[in-house]
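quick one before i forget lol
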Amino acid sequence: MREKNEIERNKEQKQVLKIPAQLLKHSESVELDLEEDANGMGIILGRNSRCVSVATFSFAPEGRKEKKRVFKGKSDLVKFRCSIYEKKLLNIKASASGLSLSEYIRRAVFDKEITERFSEEHIELYKMMIKYHNNFKAIGNMYRKRNPKLTETVYGLANEIKTHLKRFQ
């Protein structure tokens, strides 16, 4: 049984298709029709299959062309000296703003806007301030007819909180 399987494997590996060179000289492909034989062990060639020669015309004999770079981007390197502490401070500020060190320095030099990312603690404080603002507004609305002076004071406090919120952003 083992020998029979090895013989079948050898038969599968030895299947070779030879195409005369005269056919390939005049055309890039030859049409062939491949079908399995009755016992499913071999392939029979018919008339309507297509076989392309390996030695077809090469469209890029010198190799692949390099792409033209339309936009160069940031390719020049600028170095400057600073102390260890200055570098650490720059890294801390860059990471706090969510930027790379080079992008942070670029924005600082060209006076572009640099916004710091909120930490979880800052976000909690911001939400709490919004709640206080809304609550003071509601209290002011509640006492508007009964005590106008209290309403005015509460609205003033709510507006103060609002200005702090605007600065916070």
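fyi The chain has a mean pLDDT of 76.
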